[in-house]
Design a protein that fits this description.
This protein is mainly beta. 10% of the residues lie in helices and 21% in strands. The strands form 3 sheets. A 3-stranded antiparallel β-sheet has the order 2-1-3, with no helix packed on it. Strands 4-7 form a two-stranded antiparallel sheet. Strands 5-6 form a two-stranded antiparallel sheet.
């Protein structure tokens, strides 16, 4: 578990029960206790990274304010003219 920080325990037990984790080139069960000089092979596991949140700044003096179709904490829908760019800013 210490080598797979950020990976859910359920995923660790899944790769363990599917035989992907090997000790001394053999499959082991989750209850197996490591001993001195055991050779452990752990498969590469992807850890999900958190995607940063973004905020879109719309200047107060713009004509886009009446074009906001929907807005909440995580989404904004604009009916904007083609070619007009809005700048996303990380929260």
């Amino acid at each position: 578990m210490s080598r797979l920080k950020g990976v859910p325990k359920s995923h660790v037990y899944q790769i363990l029960s599917s035989g992907q984790v090997r000790v001394n080139k053999k499959r082991v069960e989750a209850a197996y206790r490591l001993q001195i000089d055991d050779l452990v092979r752990i498969p590469p596991v992807r850890v999900a990274t958190k995607v940063p949140a973004f905020r879109i700044r719309i200047p107060e003096n713009t004509a886009l304010l009446p074009r906001i179709l929907y807005e909440d904490d995580s989404l904004i829908a604009l009916n904007k003219p083609s070619g007009l760019r809005c700048m996303a800013v990380a929260a």
